[in-house]
Amino acid sequence: MSKVKITLVKSPIDKTKRQKDTLVALGFRKVNQTVEHTNNPQLQGMLRVVNHLVQVENA
């Protein structure tokens, strides 16, 4: 499967608990942090929840 690089570009302050929990599950702790994950349907669903907070690029 392909890999994707995900960067947190906006702060989760004043966002819903679901969005904050999704960011923690993705492995984010700070703004501008980048994590790499394998692209799969579960990841796509998580990214759909927080697409306005992250930037996604293929690796």
Question: Any overview of this molecule?
Answer:
This protein is α+β, with helices and mostly antiparallel strands. It has a single domain, classed as Ribosomal Protein L30, Chain: A. Helix content is 32%, strand content 27%. The protein has two helices and three strands, in the order βαβαβ. The chain has helices spanning 17-26, 41-49; strands spanning 3-8, 34-38, 54-58. It has a three-stranded antiparallel β-sheet with strand order 2-1-3, with no helix packed on it. Helix 1 (17-26) crosses helix 2. It is globular, with a radius of gyration of 11 Å. The termini are close together. The mean pLDDT is 97.
Give the gist of this structure.
Helix content is 32%, strand content 27%.
The number of E-state strands comes to: 3
What CATH first level would be assigned? Alpha Beta
Beta-strand percent range: 25-35%
Report the radius of gyration as a whole number of Å: 11 Å
Number of helices: 2
The oligomeric status of these chains comes to: single chain
Could you give me the name of the CATH homologous superfamily? Answer: Ribosomal protein L30/L7
| Helical content class | 25-40%
Please report the distance between the alpha carbons of the first and last residues: 11 Å
- How many domains in all? 1
CATH architectural name: 2-Layer Sandwich
The SS-based structural class is alpha+beta
- What is the 3D form? globular
SSE topology string: EHEHE
* Strand order, largest beta sheet: 2-1-3
CATH topology title: Ribosomal Protein L30, Chain: A
Mean pLDDT: 97
Low-confidence stretches: none
Largest sheet: 3 strands, antiparallel
